[in-house]
Amino acid sequence: MVTDSNVKNLVKILIGAAWIDGRIQPEERQYLREIAQAKGLATDPEIKPWLYELVPVQPKECYAWVRDYLGDRPSLEDYESLIEAISGLIYSDGDVAIEEAKLLTKLQELGRLNDSNQPAFNALLKQIQKLYRRWVEVQN
């Protein structure tokens, strides 16, 4: 279950998603800094090195943060809020990198692992499909 205490973890996930293709685009950088500022985490000692690109985030760290954020039994709202947050970051630079698409696929796999939450998995899959369709439309 995602709680208010996970706001920091969500910001970490967004930073990790921005780093997932190996670099942070200028639009992603601005988006992340605005989010961190709005959440009161721009000067947090744990967040600051990643946010200001002093230390890169490795993909495996990002995936671990996603697992921690969602927990053992994520709800439909948990998946939706995470996909919505990551979508905002992904669309901030107008380009969906292969690695960013892989992150969304990994979210799909995490949903599949939670067999007792099949409706949440189906909703997650629909959200990912909508995201891909919107991205394809933007590319045309």
| Beta-strand residue fraction | under 5%
Give the termini distance in whole angstroms. Answer: 38 Å
Number of strands: 0
SSE order in H/E notation? Answer: HHHHHHH
* Silhouette: globular
**Average of the residue pLDDT scores:** 77
- Number of alpha- plus pi-helical segments: 7
- List unreliable stretches of 5+ residues: none
**Helical proportion, percent range:** 55-70%
Radius of gyration: 14 Å
Give the domain tally: 1
Oligomer: single chain
Structural class: mainly alpha
Main β sheet profile: none
Protein name: TerB family tellurite resistance protein
InterPro entries: TerB-like (IPR029024)
Organism: Dendronalium phyllosphericum CENA369
Q: Short description, anyone?
A:
The chain is mainly α. The protein has seven helices and no strands.
Compile the SSE list and pairings.
Layout: H1 7-19, H2 26-38, H3 48-51, H4 59-70, H5 76-92, H6 98-113, H7 118-139
Helix pairs in contact: 1-2, 1-4, 1-5, 5-7, 6-7
Organism: Dendronalium phyllosphericum CENA369
Protein name: TerB family tellurite resistance protein
Task: Please describe what this structure looks like.
By secondary structure, the chain is an all-alpha fold. It has one domain (4-139). It is 69% helix and 0% strand. The longest helix has 22 residues, at 118-139.
What structural keywords apply?
mainly alpha, 69% helix, 140 residues, single chain
